[in-house]
Amino acid sequence: MISSSDTVLRALTDDGSFRVIAVDTTETVRGAVAAQRVNARLSNLLGEVITGSVLVRESMAPDYRLQAILQGADRRTRIVADTHPSGSTRGLVQVADGVEDMPMGEGALLQVARTLHNGTLQQGVVQVPTDKQSVSSAFMAYMADSEQTVTMMAVGCHHAGGQVVAAGGYLVQVLPEAQQGPLMVMTERLKDFEDILPLLARGAATPASLLDETLYGMPYTRVAERTVHFGCNCSPERLSISLASLPRADIESLLEGGQVLDIECDYCRTAYAFSPAQLRSLLENN
Ligand SMILES: [Zn+2]
């Protein structure tokens, strides 16, 4: 399942002070939101978590899979973003029935995990800052605490008329060579772009214009252009592996009715069917 691609741009200032990554995630978020079927508020949060996860992967570890999980203060609401080195990115919103918003106050957490090539998981967890209660502030806290880098980030998703109009964000990383002067200029400058929703709403948040705006007056070079898209890596094989890991008794109870088992992927809504014969073969290998 592949939607059209979005663009990620990466730039370095010529004086070596800053690295900037800017991303348009509109199509990616549209794909994820269409599959999740949640209200505008939760769609926007999903869009922000997806955008933040892409920015962190692109800046810290473009070659590794990265998952970000935002957990609400109620400990029951979860928003998951899962982004791969290929650019393939998906999302999941888990809410209890009737819950329309994610409580972001005291107790809300952001967890970020990278899967290294040898399969080990590297992860960090931070508290969502209670003064801001925003996805952007949570990702900045993660970058400071777990990645030990000084980073300014803004992510946003603009929803109107029942659909995602635009989603995207940027990340400015202060490099070790940064001098005091440029750092003060940048800090002042980014105060104007802390909230990128106004830019998204008026169609002024393309990656190219985000680079131009954040790096105004600073000579810079674009060093990479990559893409992201909505995509899910589910398959009948992957699904049967997870079914096979169920306790034997559970598989037996699935078999009792003698019916075909219909399963839908939570991330992309692809439907899969397992015949009683396929389920029995799982038992044989269980
Ligand atoms: Zn799927």
Describe the structure.
Helix content is 33%, strand content 31%. The protein is α+β, with helices and mostly antiparallel strands and 286 residues long. Helix 1 crosses helix 2, helix 2 runs parallel beside helix 3 and helix 8 runs antiparallel to helix 9. Bound molecules: zinc ion (ZN). The site of zinc ion has 6 residues, from loops.
Architecture blueprint of SSEs:
Layout: E1 6-13, E2 18-24, H1 26-36, H2 40-60, E3 65-71, E4 78-83, E5 88-94, E6 109-115, E7 121-127, H3 135-145, E8 151-160, E9 163-174, H4 180-190, H5 197-201, H6 207-214, E10 220-230, H7 236-244, H8 248-255, E11 261-264, E12 271-274, H9 276-284
Bound molecules: zinc ion.
Enumerate the spans where pLDDT stays under 50 for 5 or more consecutive residues.
Answer: none
Report how far apart the termini are.
30 Å
Across the major sheet, the strand order is 7-6-3-4-5-10-1-2-9-8
Query: How much beta, percentage-wise?
Result: 25-35%
CATH level-4 homologous superfamily of the largest domain: Hsp33 domain
Any idea what the shape is?
A: elongated
Instruction: Determine the oligomeric state from the structure.
Output: single chain
CATH class bucket of the largest domain: Alpha Beta
Order of helices and strands: EEHHEEEEEHEEHHHEHHEEH
What is the residue-mean pLDDT, rounded to a whole number?
Answer: 93
User: Helix proportion of residues, in percent?
Assistant: 25-40%
Number of strands: 12
Tally of contiguous helical segments: 9
CATH architecture of the largest domain: 3-Layer(bab) Sandwich
Largest sheet features: 10 strands, mixed
